[in-house]
Amino acid sequence: MEREAYGICSRMSPAQRRYLLLEQGVGAGVVNFAINAAIAWVAFRGMAIVPLWGQQSIAGDTIGTTFLLPFITTLIASRLVRGHVRSGRIAGLAWDSSPLGRWMPRGLARRGAVFGLACVVLVGLPAPRALAAAGVAQMSFGRFVVFKALFAAVLAALVTPIIARAALADGRPSGASSR
To answer: How far apart, in Å, are the Cα atoms of 118 and each of 8, 122, 154, 159?
Structure first.
């Protein structure tokens, strides 16, 4: 079986691809842009300048976002996707014998923590260092709000289809428990 990005494989139907990439990817990006712009505005509104490092900073917020966004997304999106599979809106798709499917935790909190920690290591820790290497030491409040919103939108658009793909394998026939 030929594998493609996001755990999407050649035996996946066009409807499943559309569901994962458009609804779960693009849709999650749009929603997270708005949510994270609001979060940044509320959390940092008293600051004219947001420093890269410090207690309330770009680095701290970015690392926190890279854990919390996938964790919360796993809790919410997985339940929605499981429901869509149970209701017949979208067909489930087993992992078969893939290594990813074998290590994927069934419990959503544990799965969310795994996705969150992976994002912290792969994105959250390198991102502030990349900003520092680019010469960013601080951002104006407005620029930070836009940065956080865009960062979260891109992160959500990348991780939500992966999270949803895992949930497609979790779907149960009507009447069966999803826990």
So the answer is: 19, 6, 16, 10
Report helix, strand or coil for 91: coil
pLDDT tens-place string over residues 109-147: 999 999 999 999 999 999 999 999 999 999 999 999 999
Query: Residue 77 corresponds to which tokens in the numbers above?
Result: 């999106």
DSSP calls for 125-139: THHHHHHHHTT--EE
Name the token pair of 152. Answer: 């979260």
Question: Which pair of structure tokens corresponds to residue 136?
Answer: 């960013």
| Tens digits of residue pLDDT in 46-100 | 999 999 999 999 999 999 999 999 999 999 999 999 999 999 999 998 876 667 6
How big, in percent rounded to 5, are the helix, strand and coil portions of the chain? 70, 5, 25
- Alpha-carbon distance 47 to 56, whole Å? 10
Contact of 65 with 36, CB cutoff 8 Å: yes
